[in-house]
UniProtKB/TrEMBL annotation:
It holds the Pfam family HNH. Residues 104-146 form the HNH domain. It comes from the Bacteria. One of its GO terms (molecular function) is zinc ion binding. This is HNH domain-containing protein.
């Protein structure tokens, strides 16, 4: 899981560009004209969004209350395959060194195939195409998030544009062994004094997106890859040298994918587990 950098340019200009890319239809030849009428108020709401976004306080936002045709028109602005929105998607998923990531950072399991509205578009149609409200995601995470995004004026999910992830470990996995079968249980714990509000947000994010369960269900391939690497080199280099090499690879992986990347946590846990080592080095 990595933080992404938000859209750098003016949100108002982005709104203008999205509308320009839209087309009126024969059934609705006045669509763009209606949205143009709404734009001044929407841009005023963008200013409010920007203020609260800078303060990382989006949970305090109050919806304009658009309803009826106005709401329909604003929601219609958003379409995942819109050329302007796809350009945004590519922009924010391009990291340093022009490295393009295509894995949902909300879960780090599935491919990106949608954009998450950090502030739900059904409640806030005025922000349906605010670029700083659009975060690359997978449909699985979007489905789990639904419309519940705040409680008691506090966000319940990480905003990976704003919430800086700690380097301290908070994701742990506990292996159990039944012969050569390995079962993992993932937990989110604050063992290393992460600031409490941030940890609570991390815990809620992982719990509400069912990440521990999803990690467990997807863990077999990572275990297999680690087993295969050990079996490949066990007769070529010493046990200690192989373990050292794997630990170094895991550290590089953490720097690349995030310090609590679930696959790295699996490898790190197993390579430090005596039962696993006994199983692999017979």
């Amino acid at each position: 899981m990595k933080n992404l950098k938000p859209h750098k340019e003016c949100s108002n200009t982005f709104l203008d560009d999205v509308l320009k890319a839209k087309n009126n239809s024969k059934k609705d030849p006045d669509y763009k004209k209606r949205v143009e009428i709404l734009k001044p108020d929407v841009k005023n709401k963008y200013s409010t969004f920007e203020t609260e976004n800078i303060a990382n306080n989006l949970a305090s936002l109050t919806a304009h209350g658009y309803a009826g045709q106005n709401k329909i028109d604003l929601l219609k602005l958003y379409k995942y395959d819109n050329s302007v929105i796809q350009k945004l998607n590519e922009e924010v998923t391009t990291l340093e060194g022009n490295r393009l990531i295509n894995t949902c950072q909300n879960c780090t399991i599935n491919e990106i195939n949608s954009l998450d509205h950090i502030v739900p578009k059904d409640e806030f149609p005025e922000f349906s195409v605010n670029p700083r409200n659009l975060f690359p995601s997978c449909s699985k995470c979007n489905g789990h998030k639904s419309t519940v995004w705040r409680e008691k004026n506090k966000s319940v999910f990480l905003n990976l544009y704003l919430d800086n992830l700690p380097e301290e470990q908070y994701l742990f996995c506990n292996p159990t062994f039944d012969g050569d079968k390995i079962t993992l249980k993932f937990t989110v714990e604050n063992r290393f004094a992460i600031e409490q509000n941030l940890f609570d947000l991390i815990y809620n994010h992982y719990t509400r997106l069912h990440l521990p369960k999803r990690f467990r269900k997807n863990s077999s391939d990572t275990i297999y890859e680690l087993n295969k690497e050990i079996n490949k080199y066990a007769n070529k280099i010493s046990k200690d040298e192989l373990i050292k090499t794997i630990k170094e690879d895991v550290m590089e992986e953490k720097i690349y994918y995030g310090f609590n990347y679930w696959k790295s946590i699996i490898k790190e846990t197993l390579i430090n587990n005596q039962d696993y080592l006994n199983l692999m080095f017979k």
